[in-house]
Fold this protein.
Amino acid sequence: MTVLLLALLIFQDTSATDPYMAYREKGVVAFEKKDYATFLDLMEKALALRPHDYAALYNLAVGNAQVGKIEAAVSHLRALAKMGLVLNLENAWFKDKLSGDPHYSQLVAELLQNQKPRGSSTVAFTVSQKDLYPEGIAHDAATGRFFVSSIHHRKIIEISASGGVKDFVSEKQDGIWSVMGLAIDGKRRVLWAASSSMPQTKDLEKDQLGRTGVFKYQLDSGKLLQSYLVQGDGHNFGDLAVLDNGDLYITDTRAGSIWTIGYGSNKLEKWLESSKFRSLQGICFNSDASLCFVADYTHGVYRIDMKTREMIRFSGRPDLTLAGIDGLIYFRNSLIAIQNGIPPHRVVQWRLNENGTAVRDVKVLEINNPIFDEPTLGTVVGDTLFYVAVSQWGSYTEDHLPLPLDKLKEIKILKTRVQ
């Protein structure tokens, strides 16, 4: 139980500037000392700062169970169940502590319900290279081609409309590292690729670890037009998006910043940096590019005014968790989120309120799909979402090498209709 508790507690990067994290870090110490009264007090303070935070709710449930406040523990766990989360309450620890509560059996039933598959996704493409370890996907409307990036093999593959697969950027071509997010500028016939060097990068030289940048390719020929590299370590470009005017925006996961390459300026520049950011992931823009939406793996979603750069963090809801988002796509005043950092992994569509500051309605597009192995990023083509369903991020050895091929799955790109 302690292991799971601590895993939730360290889910976010530590920061002396974040009171929420300060409470949780102190809570770890209190819990390890079995000072559960202090632990509960700290977790209550953490939850007050982020209402409906799933990790704080879980920690409160564990803490209350430890001190015999069973009704409170079950109440917190039921809140997690209403968020659609899956927890194992059938293990001995939970049964011993909670099974006497009259609502325990109902809680177990609700959590079992959350394990049922929902959705209508079908397989769009299958890639036979099991150790591809894909991440990003983009679509070229002019030719019907899809492009998928590879973490391990540091390349980009091209999938024709008929399903044929070939390399668009071959392994290690142009010095590219692990390829993360992809974005296509159809008007200018450009494919943008975010690339970062990491332990999973094949044949990586030690002095290259921690490097990151953006690679710009001619979409029809595959020729490298230019690369934009960040000097120094402490950076990791993860995802990117291009506007109709040609401006590109990139999330820097490690540095907590957003970068841009303005069309015509041909220069990589930092656009926004904030101590509030912890682990930036997907990025997208509304229809007129007046608003930017960016996913923070631990904090949820921020709405950023493009003119003033004012940030608003989405407010929580009792039935919703915004944590664990990897891919984020704007579609008809809604956000499509691919959440691989919460159990179970899911693809959801959140209708927004009029000013785009909060989620109004929730629709689960896919959840508990047996094909899933850490879904990552996606792209909408017309009214169909295509997304990487099998990335196998967890299928590496302790030395960050791919598992044997017989332990890996075929790569699946799924598709589903969106409205």
